[in-house]
Specification:
This protein has 314 residues and is of the alpha+beta class. Among the domains are: 106 residues, FAD/NAD(P)-binding domain (3-Layer(bba) Sandwich); 107 residues, 2-Layer Sandwich (D-Amino Acid Oxidase, Chain A, domain 2), CATH 3.30.9. Helices cover 25% and strands 34% of the residues. It contains 9 helices and 20 strands. The strands form 4 sheets. Strands 6-5-14-15-16-13-18-17 form an 8-stranded mixed β-sheet, covered by helices on one side.
Protein backbone atom coordinates (compact mmCIF):
# COMPACT_ATOMS: atom_id res chain seq x y z
CA UNK A 1 0.00 0.00 0.00
CA UNK A 2 1.53 3.37 -1.02
CA UNK A 3 2.53 5.79 1.75
CA UNK A 4 0.12 8.77 1.99
CA UNK A 5 1.49 12.06 0.69
CA UNK A 6 1.14 15.30 2.65
CA UNK A 7 1.31 18.74 1.08
CA UNK A 8 2.16 21.92 2.99
CA UNK A 9 0.42 24.88 1.36
CA UNK A 10 1.57 28.38 2.27
CA UNK A 11 -1.17 30.92 1.58
CA UNK A 12 -4.93 30.81 2.11
CA UNK A 13 -6.06 33.29 -0.54
CA UNK A 14 -7.30 31.96 -3.88
CA UNK A 15 -4.49 29.73 -5.20
CA UNK A 16 -3.92 27.93 -1.88
CA UNK A 17 -7.46 26.61 -1.32
CA UNK A 18 -7.82 25.83 -5.05
CA UNK A 19 -4.61 23.78 -4.98
CA UNK A 20 -5.82 21.99 -1.84
CA UNK A 21 -9.12 21.01 -3.49
CA UNK A 22 -7.30 19.57 -6.51
CA UNK A 23 -4.74 17.69 -4.41
CA UNK A 24 -7.30 16.29 -1.95
CA UNK A 25 -9.22 15.03 -4.98
CA UNK A 26 -6.29 12.74 -5.91
CA UNK A 27 -5.60 11.58 -2.36
CA UNK A 28 -2.93 14.04 -1.21
CA UNK A 29 -3.58 15.39 2.29
CA UNK A 30 -3.22 19.18 2.57
CA UNK A 31 -2.61 21.63 5.38
CA UNK A 32 -2.95 25.32 4.50
CA UNK A 33 -0.95 27.85 6.53
CA UNK A 34 -2.13 31.47 6.31
CA UNK A 35 -0.25 34.38 7.91
CA UNK A 36 -3.40 36.40 8.65
CA UNK A 37 -5.49 35.59 11.74
CA UNK A 38 -8.63 34.95 9.64
CA UNK A 39 -9.72 34.89 5.98
CA UNK A 40 -8.94 38.30 4.47
CA UNK A 41 -11.77 40.50 3.27
CA UNK A 42 -9.76 43.04 1.24
CA UNK A 43 -9.93 42.80 -2.52
CA UNK A 44 -11.99 43.94 -5.46
CA UNK A 45 -14.34 42.05 -7.77
CA UNK A 46 -12.64 39.17 -9.51
CA UNK A 47 -13.60 38.01 -13.00
CA UNK A 48 -13.78 34.30 -13.80
CA UNK A 49 -13.43 33.30 -17.45
CA UNK A 50 -15.31 30.26 -18.80
CA UNK A 51 -12.34 27.90 -18.33
CA UNK A 52 -12.13 28.87 -14.64
CA UNK A 53 -15.89 28.41 -14.24
CA UNK A 54 -15.56 24.96 -15.84
CA UNK A 55 -13.03 23.90 -13.18
CA UNK A 56 -15.19 25.23 -10.37
CA UNK A 57 -18.15 23.34 -11.83
CA UNK A 58 -16.04 20.16 -11.81
CA UNK A 59 -15.60 20.72 -8.07
CA UNK A 60 -19.36 21.01 -7.59
CA UNK A 61 -19.44 24.76 -6.98
CA UNK A 62 -21.34 25.97 -10.02
CA UNK A 63 -24.82 25.89 -8.48
CA UNK A 64 -23.65 28.03 -5.55
CA UNK A 65 -21.97 30.42 -7.97
CA UNK A 66 -25.10 30.95 -10.06
CA UNK A 67 -27.02 31.93 -6.92
CA UNK A 68 -24.63 34.73 -6.02
CA UNK A 69 -22.37 35.73 -8.94
CA UNK A 70 -22.98 38.02 -11.90
CA UNK A 71 -22.79 36.28 -15.31
CA UNK A 72 -21.74 38.02 -18.54
CA UNK A 73 -20.69 37.22 -22.10
CA UNK A 74 -18.70 40.29 -23.14
CA UNK A 75 -17.11 43.56 -22.07
CA UNK A 76 -18.53 46.68 -23.70
CA UNK A 77 -16.23 49.63 -24.40
CA UNK A 78 -17.62 53.17 -24.15
CA UNK A 79 -16.31 56.63 -24.92
CA UNK A 80 -16.34 58.89 -21.87
CA UNK A 81 -16.53 61.95 -24.16
CA UNK A 82 -19.56 60.88 -26.17
CA UNK A 83 -21.13 58.06 -24.17
CA UNK A 84 -21.23 55.95 -27.33
CA UNK A 85 -20.54 52.23 -27.48
CA UNK A 86 -17.21 51.80 -29.27
CA UNK A 87 -17.24 48.01 -29.48
CA UNK A 88 -17.40 44.79 -27.52
CA UNK A 89 -14.87 42.17 -26.46
CA UNK A 90 -16.27 38.59 -26.30
CA UNK A 91 -15.53 37.18 -22.87
CA UNK A 92 -17.69 34.09 -22.54
CA UNK A 93 -20.92 32.64 -23.82
CA UNK A 94 -22.53 29.28 -23.17
CA UNK A 95 -23.08 28.60 -26.87
CA UNK A 96 -19.37 28.81 -27.62
CA UNK A 97 -17.69 27.90 -24.31
CA UNK A 98 -20.47 26.06 -22.43
CA UNK A 99 -20.17 28.71 -19.69
CA UNK A 100 -20.50 32.45 -19.30
CA UNK A 101 -17.86 34.48 -17.52
CA UNK A 102 -18.73 35.37 -13.93
CA UNK A 103 -17.79 38.11 -11.50
CA UNK A 104 -17.97 38.34 -7.72
CA UNK A 105 -16.21 39.92 -4.78
CA UNK A 106 -12.79 38.32 -4.27
CA UNK A 107 -13.65 37.61 -0.64
CA UNK A 108 -16.76 35.66 -1.72
CA UNK A 109 -14.72 33.46 -4.06
CA UNK A 110 -12.13 32.90 -1.36
CA UNK A 111 -14.79 31.84 1.12
CA UNK A 112 -16.32 29.45 -1.44
CA UNK A 113 -12.94 27.81 -2.10
CA UNK A 114 -12.00 27.62 1.58
CA UNK A 115 -15.29 25.94 2.47
CA UNK A 116 -14.81 23.42 -0.35
CA UNK A 117 -11.22 22.73 0.69
CA UNK A 118 -12.34 22.03 4.26
CA UNK A 119 -15.15 19.83 2.99
CA UNK A 120 -12.59 17.88 0.93
CA UNK A 121 -10.55 17.19 4.07
CA UNK A 122 -7.94 19.96 4.04
CA UNK A 123 -6.92 21.70 7.28
CA UNK A 124 -6.41 25.47 7.58
CA UNK A 125 -4.23 27.10 10.23
CA UNK A 126 -4.18 30.87 10.63
CA UNK A 127 -1.63 33.27 12.10
CA UNK A 128 1.31 31.34 10.64
CA UNK A 129 4.07 33.45 9.07
CA UNK A 130 6.68 31.43 7.18
CA UNK A 131 10.28 32.34 8.05
CA UNK A 132 12.17 29.49 6.41
CA UNK A 133 12.15 26.17 4.58
CA UNK A 134 14.38 23.19 5.35
CA UNK A 135 14.71 20.10 3.17
CA UNK A 136 15.53 16.61 4.30
CA UNK A 137 16.34 13.59 2.18
CA UNK A 138 12.69 12.56 1.82
CA UNK A 139 10.75 15.49 3.27
CA UNK A 140 10.43 19.26 3.52
CA UNK A 141 9.87 21.33 6.66
CA UNK A 142 8.21 24.74 6.92
CA UNK A 143 9.49 26.95 9.74
CA UNK A 144 7.15 29.54 11.25
CA UNK A 145 7.69 32.76 13.17
CA UNK A 146 5.99 31.41 16.30
CA UNK A 147 8.45 28.52 16.50
CA UNK A 148 6.16 25.87 15.02
CA UNK A 149 7.34 23.54 12.29
CA UNK A 150 5.38 21.57 9.67
CA UNK A 151 6.74 18.40 8.06
CA UNK A 152 5.48 17.28 4.65
CA UNK A 153 6.36 15.56 1.40
CA UNK A 154 5.92 18.66 -0.79
CA UNK A 155 5.50 22.38 -0.18
CA UNK A 156 3.46 24.78 -2.34
CA UNK A 157 4.11 28.51 -2.22
CA UNK A 158 0.68 30.03 -2.89
CA UNK A 159 1.48 33.20 -0.97
CA UNK A 160 1.27 35.86 -3.68
CA UNK A 161 3.71 38.24 -5.29
CA UNK A 162 5.45 38.97 -1.98
CA UNK A 163 5.88 35.23 -1.44
CA UNK A 164 7.98 34.20 1.55
CA UNK A 165 8.43 30.79 -0.07
CA UNK A 166 10.09 32.48 -3.04
CA UNK A 167 12.16 35.06 -1.18
CA UNK A 168 13.32 32.76 1.61
CA UNK A 169 13.92 29.55 -0.32
CA UNK A 170 13.00 29.01 -3.96
CA UNK A 171 14.50 32.16 -5.54
CA UNK A 172 15.68 34.74 -2.97
CA UNK A 173 17.21 36.96 -5.66
CA UNK A 174 13.85 37.63 -7.32
CA UNK A 175 11.86 40.30 -5.49
CA UNK A 176 8.71 42.19 -6.41
CA UNK A 177 9.05 45.68 -7.91
CA UNK A 178 6.43 48.38 -7.46
CA UNK A 179 5.27 49.80 -10.81
CA UNK A 180 4.37 53.25 -9.52
CA UNK A 181 0.68 52.70 -10.17
CA UNK A 182 -2.12 51.41 -7.99
CA UNK A 183 -5.64 50.29 -8.72
CA UNK A 184 -8.20 52.52 -7.06
CA UNK A 185 -11.42 50.61 -6.54
CA UNK A 186 -14.62 50.52 -4.59
CA UNK A 187 -18.18 49.24 -4.43
CA UNK A 188 -21.33 51.33 -4.72
CA UNK A 189 -24.94 50.25 -4.09
CA UNK A 190 -27.13 50.68 -7.17
CA UNK A 191 -29.67 52.38 -4.90
CA UNK A 192 -27.32 55.40 -4.66
CA UNK A 193 -27.28 55.96 -8.42
CA UNK A 194 -29.97 58.30 -9.73
CA UNK A 195 -28.89 58.70 -13.38
CA UNK A 196 -29.58 55.90 -15.90
CA UNK A 197 -26.95 53.17 -15.81
CA UNK A 198 -25.41 52.93 -19.27
CA UNK A 199 -24.17 49.33 -19.17
CA UNK A 200 -25.56 45.85 -18.67
CA UNK A 201 -22.46 43.87 -19.51
CA UNK A 202 -19.25 45.07 -17.78
CA UNK A 203 -18.20 48.44 -19.21
CA UNK A 204 -14.70 49.71 -19.93
CA UNK A 205 -15.09 53.49 -20.15
CA UNK A 206 -12.20 55.17 -21.94
CA UNK A 207 -10.97 58.75 -21.93
CA UNK A 208 -7.71 60.58 -22.55
CA UNK A 209 -6.98 60.15 -18.84
CA UNK A 210 -7.24 56.36 -18.82
CA UNK A 211 -10.01 53.78 -18.49
CA UNK A 212 -12.59 53.11 -15.82
CA UNK A 213 -14.11 49.66 -15.27
CA UNK A 214 -17.76 49.61 -14.22
CA UNK A 215 -19.43 46.25 -13.59
CA UNK A 216 -22.02 44.52 -11.50
CA UNK A 217 -20.62 41.92 -9.11
CA UNK A 218 -23.67 40.08 -7.81
CA UNK A 219 -26.48 38.10 -9.39
CA UNK A 220 -29.15 40.59 -8.34
CA UNK A 221 -27.22 43.54 -9.84
CA UNK A 222 -27.51 45.45 -6.59
CA UNK A 223 -23.83 46.39 -6.31
CA UNK A 224 -21.46 47.95 -8.84
CA UNK A 225 -17.69 47.61 -8.73
CA UNK A 226 -15.59 50.38 -10.22
CA UNK A 227 -11.83 50.46 -10.71
CA UNK A 228 -9.18 52.60 -12.38
CA UNK A 229 -5.41 52.93 -12.12
CA UNK A 230 -3.71 55.92 -10.54
CA UNK A 231 -0.10 57.00 -10.20
CA UNK A 232 0.82 56.60 -6.53
CA UNK A 233 4.40 57.25 -5.45
CA UNK A 234 4.16 55.55 -2.07
CA UNK A 235 2.36 52.18 -2.12
CA UNK A 236 1.76 52.45 1.66
CA UNK A 237 1.69 48.70 2.07
CA UNK A 238 2.07 45.57 0.03
CA UNK A 239 -1.46 44.22 -0.07
CA UNK A 240 -3.64 47.27 -0.49
CA UNK A 241 -5.21 49.66 1.93
CA UNK A 242 -8.32 51.64 2.71
CA UNK A 243 -7.97 55.37 2.01
CA UNK A 244 -8.93 57.70 4.84
CA UNK A 245 -9.75 61.37 5.31
CA UNK A 246 -7.85 63.71 3.02
CA UNK A 247 -6.41 60.84 0.96
CA UNK A 248 -9.93 59.54 0.27
CA UNK A 249 -11.10 62.99 -0.80
CA UNK A 250 -8.12 63.60 -3.08
CA UNK A 251 -8.42 60.19 -4.74
CA UNK A 252 -12.17 60.55 -5.29
CA UNK A 253 -11.73 64.03 -6.75
CA UNK A 254 -8.99 62.77 -9.07
CA UNK A 255 -11.29 60.04 -10.39
CA UNK A 256 -14.11 62.57 -10.86
CA UNK A 257 -11.77 64.90 -12.75
CA UNK A 258 -10.68 62.11 -15.07
CA UNK A 259 -13.98 60.37 -15.71
CA UNK A 260 -16.94 62.63 -14.87
CA UNK A 261 -18.86 63.38 -18.06
CA UNK A 262 -22.27 64.77 -18.99
CA UNK A 263 -22.42 62.03 -21.64
CA UNK A 264 -22.46 59.31 -18.94
CA UNK A 265 -23.89 61.04 -15.85
CA UNK A 266 -24.16 57.86 -13.78
CA UNK A 267 -20.35 57.76 -13.45
CA UNK A 268 -20.39 60.83 -11.20
CA UNK A 269 -23.12 59.18 -9.10
CA UNK A 270 -20.94 56.09 -8.77
CA UNK A 271 -17.87 58.07 -7.71
CA UNK A 272 -19.79 59.98 -5.05
CA UNK A 273 -21.65 56.87 -3.90
CA UNK A 274 -18.57 54.73 -3.18
CA UNK A 275 -18.77 53.84 0.48
CA UNK A 276 -15.07 53.03 0.87
CA UNK A 277 -12.25 53.62 -1.60
CA UNK A 278 -9.30 51.24 -1.66
CA UNK A 279 -5.89 51.25 -3.34
CA UNK A 280 -4.24 48.06 -4.56
CA UNK A 281 -0.56 48.59 -5.50
CA UNK A 282 0.55 46.85 -8.69
CA UNK A 283 3.84 44.94 -8.42
CA UNK A 284 5.67 42.95 -11.07
CA UNK A 285 8.26 40.20 -11.13
CA UNK A 286 11.15 40.08 -13.57
CA UNK A 287 10.94 37.56 -16.40
CA UNK A 288 12.45 34.13 -15.94
CA UNK A 289 13.46 33.09 -12.47
CA UNK A 290 13.17 29.78 -10.68
CA UNK A 291 9.76 28.34 -9.92
CA UNK A 292 10.80 25.38 -7.82
CA UNK A 293 13.57 24.17 -5.58
CA UNK A 294 13.73 20.57 -4.41
CA UNK A 295 10.34 19.69 -2.93
CA UNK A 296 9.02 23.28 -2.98
CA UNK A 297 7.16 24.85 -5.91
CA UNK A 298 5.60 28.26 -6.51
CA UNK A 299 1.99 28.65 -7.65
CA UNK A 300 0.21 31.69 -9.09
CA UNK A 301 1.50 35.21 -8.43
CA UNK A 302 4.32 33.85 -6.29
CA UNK A 303 5.86 32.55 -9.54
CA UNK A 304 4.52 34.68 -12.36
CA UNK A 305 2.57 37.80 -11.43
CA UNK A 306 0.41 39.08 -14.27
CA UNK A 307 2.18 41.73 -16.34
CA UNK A 308 -0.03 44.82 -16.47
CA UNK A 309 0.72 47.57 -18.97
CA UNK A 310 -1.62 50.53 -18.52
CA UNK A 311 -1.08 54.01 -19.92
CA UNK A 312 -2.35 56.87 -17.79
CA UNK A 313 -2.39 60.51 -18.82
CA UNK A 314 -2.79 63.39 -16.44
Amino acid sequence: MPTPITAIIIGGGIAGPAAAIALQEIGISCIIYELRPAPETIGGAIGLSPNAVRVLDHWGLYESMTRTMYSYEKIDMFSIATGKLLGSLPFGGKERFAYDSMRCKRSDLQRLLLDKALEAGAVVRYGKRLVGVKEGENSVTALFEDGDEALGDILLGCDGIHSNVRTKYVDPSRSATYTGISSAYGFVPVSKITAPIHFNEPGMNSSRQGSLLTTYCDVGKKTIFIAAVMEVKDPAGEDGWLTRGRVQEVARNDLLKRFESPSIPCIADMMRGIEELYFYPVYTLSNGGQWFNGRAILIGDAAHAVSIQIITRT
